[in-house]
Specification:
- It is found in: Membrane.
- The chain is an all-alpha fold and 147 residues long.
- 56% of the residues lie in helices and 0% in strands.
- It has five helices and no strands.
- α3 packs across α4 (80-118).
- The protein is elongated, with a radius of gyration of 35 Å.
Length: 147
């Protein structure tokens, strides 16, 4: 009977890293016989087909979200997933900015309403004054209209 693979053996904690013998670790990293030159795992994990050519606006998003420091660092082609993540970050940042501006606008409206209340102004008094003005204009127009 064949032994169970390490990931299926009983007693293993789910999510815990697999422990492999040193001989297997070296072969898996690419430095074993017939494997070619060793490539670090971090570089292997980030190799994604870069198939999207970013526009000027996409480059600005990539810079604003902090993915790249300068526009010269942005490659000619990038993976679509990188741009999706940058757009999502930009969307969240824009939402936070709008929330902040809304809060500032609320405080501005409160301050202006308090000043208007100190001057004894209200929307009701403005509407009454405007309607009175319209009545006077209508009366003048009716008087000046020849019969």
């Amino acid at each position: 009977m064949l032994p169970l693979p390490l990931r299926l053996r009983p007693g293993r904690v789910r999510g815990a890293p697999l422990l492999r013998p040193a001989a297997l670790r070296g072969a898996a990293a690419g430095d074993g016989p017939g494997r070619g030159p060793a490539v670090p795992r971090a570089e292997q994990a980030h190799k994604v087909v870069a198939s999207y050519k970013p526009s000027k606006f996409d480059k600005k998003i990539l810079l604003w979200t902090g993915r790249f420091k300068t526009e010269e660092e942005i490659p000619a082609r990038i993976p679509p997933e990188m741009l999706d993540r940058a757009r999502n970050k930009a969307r969240v940042k824009a939402c936070y900015i709008m929330i902040g501006l809304s809060i500032v606008a609320c405080f501005a409206v409160i301050a202006s309403a308090k000043k208007a209340a100190a001057r004894h102004e209200s929307l009701t008094s403005w509407n009454l004054a405007k309607k009175e003005k319209w009545r006077k204009e209508a009366a003048l127009a009716a008087e000046s209209k020849p019969k």
